[in-house]
Amino acid sequence: MTRTLAALLGTAIAASTLTAAQAQEVNIYSSRHYDNDEQLYTGFTEATGITVNRIEGEADELIARMQAEGANSPADIFLTVDAGRIWLADQAELLQPVDSEVLNARIPAHLRHPEGHWFGISQRARIIFYNRETVENPPQTYEDLADPQYEGMVCLRSGSNIYNLSLLSSIIDADGEEAAREWAAGVRGNMARDPQGGDTDQLLGLVSGECDIAVTNTYYFLRALDGGVDGLSGSTDMIGWVFPNQSGRGAHVNVAAAGVAVNAPNREEAVAFLEYLSSPEAQAYFANQNNEYAAVPGIGLAPNPASLGLFRSDDLNLSVLGENQPLAQTIFNEVGWE
Ligand code: FE2
């Protein structure tokens, strides 16, 4: 009898332990699509014992899904790239404020939402690349890209692309709406071809000779340096780069960013996950595995990003990229930068 009771009791304890263990989970809706990110999730589980469940998709799909799920959404974390994109989720009231001493201390103020709706977790710069053989005086600023001396030389992707919307949003902030409109028209007039393809395609255009000057995020070029980007990796020597606006506001940077979902069923675990993303271990991952820059100061550069050199980055609060996004889209449409 006693033995049976003890056995039953044992079972009950085991069951309740199991229930507690099962409750330790976090549900992540992610539009980051980098294979290496798996390390982040296993690293978090190893550090905290919290299980990670992941749903991956395009940012727009995940936002629509969270809206459809409403109060019953299992989403704890929304993770995406580009401050302009996470702004869309915030506009849709899908994120909630987080006041974490850890996050506020580690992540610079301009890389996070003023009220903690989202936090930048890694940085990338959007910079100028050029053909060293054909361009003697490469543009030194974003504004220079509109200079008539570069007529027929410039390649950039579509004006509906979030990276370009965020870049133009930063130019609206720096130079004002009218100057930003003139700039967009000038760059459009300097284009070597109609906007097409992704960032890698702009770099490929330098190699093919179709383009002399391109604007892309740093990690696309760094990936080519790593090898394995068809048509590009063997030709990186002919490509030079400029971190723009170094004697002014600095190069435009953007972030991968994450926030806690407004209806998060596992809020504590979600905050723990964000704090883990800001840890030295996770930040070193962003620098070393994905050719990005850490968001947290003091994390060393990986060899690839280090080979591009140090640079001054624009410290505009990235919330502005979202706030100016509708105007940026209007301007791109107006100047025919489709
Ligand atoms: Fe990208």
Q: What does this entry look like structurally?
A:
The chain has 338 residues and is α/β, with parallel strands linked by helices. The chain folds into two domains: 5-123 and 253-302, D-Maltodextrin-Binding Protein, domain 2; 125-251 and 318-334, Periplasmic binding protein-like II (D-Maltodextrin-Binding Protein, domain 2, 3-Layer(aba) Sandwich). The chain has 14 helices and ten strands. It has helices spanning 2-23, 38-48, 59-69, 83-91, 101-106, 162-175, 177-190, 199-208, 218-226, 267-277, 280-289, 303-308, 319-323, 325-334, and strands at residues 25-30, 51-56, 77-81, 95-96, 119-131, 154-155, 213-217, 239-242, 253-261, 293-294. Strands 1, 2, 3, 4, 5, 6, 7, 8, 9 and 10 form a ten-stranded mixed beta sheet that branches. It is globular and about 60 Å long. The N and C termini lie far apart (79 Å). Mean pLDDT is 93; it is low at 1-21.
Name some characteristics of this structure.
single chain, 2 domains, globular, D-Maltodextrin-Binding Protein, domain 2, 10-stranded mixed beta sheet, alpha/beta, 338 residues, binds fe (ii) ion, 10 strands, disordered N terminus
SSE layout and pairing:
Layout: H1 2-23, E1 25-30, H2 38-48, E2 51-56, H3 59-69, E3 77-81, H4 83-91, E4 95-96, H5 101-106, E5 119-131, E6 154-155, H6 162-175, H7 177-190, H8 199-208, E7 213-217, H9 218-226, E8 239-242, E9 253-261, H10 267-277, H11 280-289, E10 293-294, H12 303-308, H13 319-323, H14 325-334
Parallel strand pairs: 1-2, 1-3, 6-7
Antiparallel strand pairs: 3-9, 4-9, 5-7, 5-8, 5-9, 5-10
Helix pairs in contact: 6-7, 6-14, 7-14
